[in-house]
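User: Here's a chain of 736 residues. Predict its fold as tokens.
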Amino acid sequence: MLLLPETSWPWGYLRQDQSLGFHLHSHSLAVRLTGPAGEGRQRPDKDIKVSLDTEGTPGGKANPGHQDLKQSVFHSIKFFVLCHSLLQLAQLMISGYLKSSISTVEKRFGLSSQTSGLLAAFNEVGNTALIVFVSYFGSRVHRPRLIGCGAILVAVAGMLMSLPHFISEPYRYDHTNHETLPQNSEVSLCLPTISGPTAAPSNSSCSGYTEARHLAVVGIMFMAQTLLGVGAVPIQPFGISYIDDFSHNSNSPLYLGILFAVTMLGPGLAYGLGGLMLRLYVDIDRMPEGGISLTSKDPRWVGAWWLGFLVAAGAVALAAIPYFFFPRELPKERHELHFRTRILSIITSRASKGENSSSEQSHGECTENQNGLPQFAPDLTVIQFIKIFPRVLLQTLRHPIFLLVVLSQVCMCSTVAGMATFLPKFLEHQFSVTASYANLLIGCLAIPSAIVGIVVGGVLVKRLHMGPMHCVLLCLLVSLLCLLFRLPLFFIGCPTHQIAGITPQPGTQSGPRLFPGCSEFCSCSADDFNPVCDASIHVEYITPCHAGCMSQVVQEAVDASTVFYTNCSCVVGGGPVLAGSCESTCSSLVLPFVLLISLGAALASVTHTPSFMLILRGVKKEDKTLAVGIQFMLLRVFAWMPSPVIHGSTIDTTCVYWAQNCGRQAVCRYYDHDLLRTRFIGLQFFYKTGSLACFALIWVILRHRGKERGTKTTLHSPGLEQLQLESEKKAEEFKA
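Assistant: Prediction complete.
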């Protein structure tokens, strides 16, 4: 989210202090005309020119030093814009990479969707606690240096996210937990001679070291996400304010536009990086002898989720290096100083004419602002800011337009947070596609569509010169279209696989078992997961043991080998059955589904700029900056933090088979596809409806206010009163 600094004047802000003089504040230029009006009259124009020459550079250096600074690339605002664009791109890539690999992390460490959703939302904890204060007090610190420190912390957090891979044992996809046995051994076969479960680990072996290691891994990831949020706090606010302070007034929107355009590519690159990394096996750095027989289509496949964090962390670390060489203040772009000279000459000429009345009037306005709603000045201390902040927060929340716009944005951001976190997993399970393919679809279709929508919304507001009423009408129309495009998603999906022992067979009794008792003598492991498919009737078994298979056949091929299981007592004719899950008959529907999602994302993004303008035009001028800070704080608290957890909990309610790890519930292996689609899309539909309702209420309020203003204008118009008096006078003359 972006926090744009509000500047009421092109060069910063011009205000009058209690010394009855003008104070022109800027980080690169500070000229004070203090004292009474008479003293201001006695100051010659020549002194002002000297001030421009000496104070136009950091630290009040003279012109020669100013020329030397310009020769360094680190004293160029254009180079800072380039560096900051690359840094924000890398920072969003590392923060969005977890969402692209969320299902893989769940599978690797046995996490539920609720836990993974909490993990994805945990980076907002530190960010939420610090963003308002950092955004407000940012001008008092060395901003480039703190940006660099925050970026280093983000890089450390990214490397810390990959640490669980290195401290964990190699991934055992057959759940044997025996280092001496090769993976893909015959532990999944039906072996009647064994009296107990083949590979079920004892509770004693799980209660100590294994559980402690699991808790340590989860704790490291949560700590890394917290550090990621804390490190990201100074990057956006400090970078945006730094660019706005030291760039020319006409160039600042261009620089910020370039920054935002490059930054929005970050999430798309995160999903693209996830699509590439998840094609590699998780233990690519410690591959077992003889390799593995898994493919990326196997449900037991776990990709190299950790490698993407190292790549993104390295990119952030490299992008952070230049920030330690930027100065605290940059010289303003050269052609800006000529404009300031003209402004100062106008101010000086007015002061020399002795316009005491205007000065006194302005001083009175300043006092009124200080006695009324607090007009935050940059010289407030932290204690003063903390004391005033609750009062301003409550007064801002009493504004109905601001409150309703924030609620609508909460609904929109809740939709985005849920989709960004769990849409890859939803596509993976609903349409039986690989995690890498799902990420590539989102990165290539959904993210660019959202970027286009944001640009279109900004162009419409600018070209059509939209006022608040027109902005609300645009948001209302777009929200209604989003609801309409969400409706077909309820009906685009694949049916649930027929799984022996879990889902009922069509045409049979409501019992869950297809062949009760056919594999009881095999003593199958409860923790094992090695699915096989009976292609003749399209039924899937959890393991070959559950299908009663006693032998294994491997067909070698040039590209990949194929594994079959034979002598299966639960299969008609004894088999064979093919290793792996049954292929979905409707995987081709994933592309239309993602296209509709992308179109809905483009439409929803159109409301970004109009709703933002409603806040900027709906609060008082002196409260705009803080109102935007409060807005993003509320969005984090009520949308970005709880939404992934809510979506994860909703997904967990559709699970039909949970894997067991040391006697505890771990990752979900199978979902009810119809229930998953209904509840996941239904939750999105609920948030969209809430956003539509908020925009409808805003439209009603603005329309009511417009009618009231029209009535007051009609009643109190001086022209109408004059006409009424003249008509009455003529009527009296006529009677006389």
